[in-house]
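Following the same procedure, the fold was encoded as tokens, giving this record:
***
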Amino acid sequence: MGWIKRNLLFVIVGVVALGLLGGAGFYIYQSWTRNAEKFDKLNEIYGALKELQSKTPAPGNEKVDNTKIAKEQQRQIREWVASTEKFFQPIPPIPSGPVTSEAFARALSSTVDQLQGAAKEAGIGLPDQYFFSFKAQSRELNIASPGPLAVQLGEVRAIAQILFSAKINALDGIQRGRASSDDANGPQGDYIDERTVTNSLAVITPYVVSFRCFTPELSRVIAAFATSSNAFLIKAINIQPAGAATASPAPTELPPGMPPGMPPGMFLSRPPGEMAPAPGSPTPTASLAGAAKGTLPTVLKEQLLRVSLELELVKLPPKS
């Protein structure tokens, strides 16, 4: 104890030094632990980066920054998607705004009158007392689900106007999916079994259109749907002869030189003085039997067609 008293200052300094050494050691241990954890995490990041660098495409290097390029391409895609929205806008319903049963009934009567008048003015045939797939609603005073029906009425009018502008010969019918409980009492020929499908990207509404026309009118119909401001897609097309409704009667007798089985719309003949071909020789050139000398031959005659188109109207979903 006497030594401690004589060297009290030395003892105090020693104790303080030991405490500082202990604190420094503890700090060094903590720092070493953190450094070890950071080192392990750095190795993990380095390994992930090395793995990404070995993939195709790679993030890039100091010369080529593929990440920056990818972000730029993503921006361009977003701009392109925004620019195409105008082609997938919904057709305005009839009537627009909040739809009541009475408002839809008035709009339906007016729209049907307009379409019937347009068909008559263009010389396009329609079924007798045709209501463009809305016959069930034409005889109802209290119409169920007028909102969805107003959407379909606007779309049906747009389809009919495209067909009328193409100058088809006759409209046999437009079929739509059932959108109201009233449709259960309508003619079965007005409807198809498919319904409108809605997903995260689009609303797809199916229709089936049947009409009669010749090939020039059919080409105009297809072109009109393809160039429409709305996204009409032709899912399927069925074409067949319109039966007895042909452009001109078929011949009842086969002209000389026409082999059995030749289609009625095609005739074969030989110029005057030319001998009949020997058996097994090439078939003579097709021409119109009895055609005047110096005129062009008619090889095929145009025939009225019955066409059925399966359409899909693609629209953007409503914004929430």
User: Anything to note?
Assistant: The mean pLDDT is 79. The longest helix spans residues 8-54. The radius of gyration is 40 Å. The CA atoms of residues 136 and 186 lie 4 Å apart.
